[in-house]
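Write out the 3D structure for:
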Amino acid sequence: MSNYHFVVERSGIHTTFQDSGYEHLQHIGITTGGVVDNNLFKIANKLLDNDFNETIIEFAYQGPRLRLDKGKAHIVVTGDVHFMISKKSEDFSEKLGETFKTYQLNEGDIIDILATKSSVYGYFAVEGGFSINKYNNSGSTLVRSAIGPNDGKCIQENQLVKFNLKSIKKNLKQLSYFSDHKDNIIKVLEGPQINFFSSETIKNFFKRTFRISNNADRMGIRLEGNEILSKNSSNIPSEGIIKGSIQVPGDGNPIVLMTDHPTIGGYPKIATVILNDISKIAHLSVGKKIRFQKVSFETAEKLCDKNEKYLDKIFQSITTI
């Protein structure tokens, strides 16, 4: 394990180590997990010349306050995030940091990730990655299952966060292009049990808006304000489910399953959020309204291809400061 480390002065909200998650383990009850926003994850690692799947730190609403106790670190914050950097050499005068821009920290320096702005999740990454114990070759933490780095727990106040010292870069980088267009339309595919619902109910599902409830986390987001009731039973034999599945329990308030979803479920699924829009709905805070739009498999695939081209354009816009 590395001796280079930060000290956690404030842990933030649901601050965890994450990467792209787990593969081929759902049959033994281990969900995929991984980062909520794959684009912000990849951009952070690209700016630091890390491997795309290098483990980073994810937080919700408020991030950690970290003091660099040992070593030097080349870092970046991605997302719509407000943070400050205090340099020991400058008598800890606080300066507002810019996201999508790398910084060099020296021993004693502090980074204080105060809050996300118009979104929920943000990311903190270090060049060389964090020195962690992986599970099944993944650096993702599944808190509810107590699986993954940090003994399957959120990062805690006063703990040491160790990192690998890859190199000490003199050239810092930033993005010169980033588009963050947001809307409240979530694209979905028809769910496997859509026939459990009447034509009128299906029409209302797509026509009327839902509201993000305060029951929302990495496991799922419960929706309110548009009751959806099955014409059949609200229970089905338990079967495998995936990220993005929209389950409809007996109370009529749908649940959108997120990255830490269970591996099986027994509620009918009216629709499935496409992969491109998982992060969009995840970033919407409590009380925000959304509407679902049905798309075809072909459209979903084209949107994935479009996103890859968008990422390529972002990567090409990286410049040296």
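Residues 199 and 205 are 10 Å apart (CA to CA).
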